[in-house]
Amino acid sequence: MQIFNVQHRSADSNARTGLLQLPHGVVHTPVFMPVGTNATVKAVSKDSLEEIGFEIILANTYHLFLRPGPDLIKEAGGLHGFSKWQRNFLTDSGGFQVFSLAKLRKISLQGAEFQSHIDGSRHLFTPENVVQTQAKFNSDIQMQLDVCSGWGVDRREAEHALVVTTNWAERAKKEWLIQQEKGYSGMLFPIVQGNFFEDLRRDSAQFVSSLDTPGIAIGGLSVGEPPEQFSQFLQYTMQYLPEEKPKYVMGIGTPQYILEAVADGVDMFDCVLPTRNARNGSYFTHDGMLSIKQERFEHDFNPIDNECHCKVCRNYSRAYLRHLFKEQEILSAMLSSYHNLCFLHTMLTEIQHAIEQDRFIQYRKDFLARFEAGNIR
User: How far apart (Å, rounded) are the C-alpha atoms in residues 31 and 17?
Assistant: First the structure.
């Protein structure tokens, strides 16, 4: 199934622009996708997301499965009917949350048995019921259930995680095809794993490619490894993935990591970091991260970033935003989250233009030189 069309390949790197055809509209790539764990991006309304220009956001299967539950969401008309966000939803499988949040979890070929972090109730995620759940959500893109092993695990653990993930991917595809026959129109992305062992990464990438699904996700990166390991293993993995498929690296949301991924030919990325940092008073600027809690901004009536044209920078001063943060006003999280998401969306638009003009590498160099210098005035 062909859902992705490359529009332009950069002459100076593997970066490319593309059009991703999904049930709720076209997505222009490369794209950063805001994370809306509970079918809402924290402190940001759907209208604000539309205003910024986002074409796709994320929701989380683990959290929505536990509350309010897939049957209620299906009754409401899927995630789109429930939330009234009428553009695209990508839902992750909930596997990462099972491993990081749930208590007394047990992983086997059958699935992931876990205890809810909310009320202690016990549940079983299988590759099949996770696909079924996401079909009830009417997700435009859904992820397979996988086992993500962290940085520093030994080879034996990484091999076991890959064996399970591979088994689950085959079963997820079979169930996805069944759901397609029943009228579900969303896409399935299986996930490359293999930890930080080159042969395991290669085997996983080749297997996932052989499934011939609409797109491919690259997991097991940005899990605590040094940046040079991220770069090395992303580049290594990409060589084994088909050119014509959209590729999604999970869990990256800083300019440095995004620009690295784009240079390697990645099309999609997501992360909670921009909004999480925002709620803690940290703003993206062209000159690095600005911590609004600093005393030097108490009498500073300049915008967060003079070159940003978002409504926060047009209408509010650093002094006022610092005041909101210090007083723990709800508006602080709303405005800072809006700004950080708008900053990244604008950056991705600039990246698309730079690729189309065959000057991506220069754009990356200039952006990072200034951003990493951190000369905020």
Answer: 9
